[in-house]
Design goal:
2 domains; single chain; 429 residues; 14 helices; alpha+beta; 5-stranded mixed β-barrel
Length: 429
């Protein structure tokens, strides 16, 4: 007898197997009981009959509850009508008979579900979201490896802000102040001079008091940096990456998207070239749509939503006013008031999923920008060194994992795309 996972049941038709799982649902009809089993690799139905079990075991069947953990001994059978496999149970034993499960089929409020996030994660839609999240992560690693990137781990504890903002989580670091990282960008920039193309992938922290569906205080970011590229080459890499991710999800996670009731037609459309427009062009479009936004304004969430609902593919918005962008962004040689940067806006109202730019590569200019932004020059001396020893044109971008996952899964809020969300109102569980 073989011990197996549910996903491998097709290999054991007409054979007896051992399956360890949880009972996600159950019902009975006379002398037959039906358990819906989940083991992390898939779902299947176990059929228990009073004819196949002794009296003591059949009586024990009646003790089963939702989320009870169980070892099943059963014969594998092909479903008579569907491409599924089921288990005809010959024996079983409980690891634990679970107490009454607090999450029922009835509708629950968001706060209740988040208070019970550690249990909500077991639900079918949440399981599907996390499987998609995992596939996105694997796709990113695969793409980066195929395109000559090497992973470099940036520190999480830093002495200053990457972008010079005040939205930082301050921590006590022995006898000095330190902060949780907003981005690994500045640190991995140093590695391009050795490896040419690098990326990091990990948690970042932003103390923004935002209540929107797109913001978390702790989330996962993939930062990538590349030597010897300009803005357009940077955008080409980003476009290829997003296409690669979407194609992998459509290839590996269609069943999960079905569980989520996600319309996949918009995702299948991501084969076309992405739209590209300048910030000024985007402003004109928004103004024509009735927005009061001006050319000196950054795009807010509502603006991104309006734009992304108008187009059937992601949109690169480039050349933002340099005054509203970070100090490290290189300015356009033809118009010093514009930064060589871009945000990638996902369609269907999901907004920004990637932000990137060409980085300033000139030593004196970078000093000037740091001073203009009133940042502590001493804290950036090491970063300035990178412009003294073999400086080259370079650029990069940051991809928000939860935002990409939210768009692909079609969720209403990014908090569903991370196992344990952190917002301004939530620290537990």
């Amino acid at each position: 007898m073989s011990k197996t996972f549910i996903k491998n049941l097709s290999d054991f038709v007409d054979k007896e197997v051992e399956v360890n799982a949880w009972i996600s649902n159950l019902r009975s009809s006379g002398k037959i009981a039906f358990w819906q089993l989940r083991d992390g690799t898939g779902h299947t139905q176990a059929i228990l009959s009073s004819q196949d079990l002794d009296t003591k075991k059949w009586d024990l069947v009646q003790s089963a509850t939702q989320e009870s953990s169980v070892k099943i001994i059963a014969k594998v059978a092909k479903h008579p009508k569907q491409e599924e496999y089921e288990l005809h149970v010959t024996d079983f034993e409980f690891y634990q008979i679970a107490e009454e499960y607090p999450i029922s089929k009835k509708d629950h409020g968001v706060d209740f579900l988040l208070d019970n996030r550690h249990l909500w994660l077991r639900s079918s839609k949440q399981l599907a979201i996390q499987r998609v999240r995992n596939s996105i992560i694997l796709a990113i690693y695969e793409f980066m490896a195929e395109n000559n990137f090497i992973k470099i781990d940036a520190p999480i504890i830093t002495p200053n802000a990457c972008e010079g903002t005040t939205d930082l989580f301050k921590i006590d670091y022995f006898d000095t102040e330190a902060y949780l990282s907003q981005s690994g960008q500045l640190y991995i920039e140093s590695a391009i001079f050795g490896h040419n193309r690098v990326f990091d992938f990990g948690p970042v922290f932003r103390a923004e008091k935002s209540k929107t569906r797109r913001h978390l205080t702790e989330f996962w970011m993939m930062d990538a940096e590349m030597a010897f590229i300009d803005l357009n080459e940077n955008l080409d890499v980003q476009e290829d990456l997003i296409r690669f991710i979407v194609n992998k999800i459509l290839e590996k996670n269609k069943s999960d998207l079905e569980i989520l009731e996600r319309d996949i037609k918009p995702l299948e459309n991501i084969t076309k070239p992405f739209y590209r427009m300048t910030h000024a062009e985007a402003i004109k479009i928004l103004q024509d749509m009735g927005s009061k936004i001006t050319e000196q304004d950054d795009l807010g969430g509502e603006d991104e939503t309006k734009l992304s609902e108008k187009y059937d593919n992601p949109i690169f918005i480039t050349h933002y006013p340099s005054e509203i962008k970070s100090f490290y962004m290189k300015r356009d040689a033809e118009d010093d008031s514009k930064a060589l940067c871009a945000d990638l806006i996902a369609p269907e109202g999901y907004g920004e999923i990637i932000g990137g730019s060409q980085r300033e590569d000139d030593y004196d200019t970078l000093i000037k920008r740091i001073k203009e932004h009133k940042l502590p020059l001493d804290e950036f001396q090491w970063y300035l060194d990178l412009r003294k020893y073999g400086s080259v044109p370079h650029g990069g971008f940051g991809l928000g994992l939860e935002r990409v996952g939210g768009w692909i899964c079609g969720t209403q809020h990014v908090r569903e795309t991370i196992p344990f969300p952190r917002t301004i109102y939530r620290l537990r569980p």
